[in-house]
Amino acid sequence: MAGHEGSGRDPALSDGTAFRRATTAEASAVRDFTRRAYARWVPVLGREPKPMTADYDAALRHHRIDLLTVDGVWAGLIQTVPAEGHLLVENVAVDPDLQGRGLGRRLMAHAEALAAGQGLNEIRLYTNALMGTNIRLYAALGYGVDRTEQKPDGRTVVQMSKRLTR
Description:
By secondary structure, the chain is an alpha+beta fold.
């Protein structure tokens, strides 16, 4: 996926998928897309997950959000934040109608390529312990649980990471 830094776009991949960087003008669309993607978790968590309430105007100014399209249709996004020695995955969202088709895996592979391109050898992420399908996906992709943390509001956050090999 070399070349996306300068142009903000990746050429379409052979399976009709492509990545491009979201623009600040798309904050409202990113917010709406994320809210739709995470809606299934509201009954499980008893509240809206953090990505549903995030300030995407600020996120697009300070973080990187890449959009995944399939045959030109917006299918997913990944929000990443470079940090000291690692890349933090802040948000992974897939269109509910397209979940279960490997797009989450594609988004995570994209984050790993971004990290490698920045000379970083670790990816970190966190998720709610009640989001078991997400934890199982990350584990299948080689992410290990670093720790769990009980928050004052009752949430249990699972911190995960993966060392990248070069």
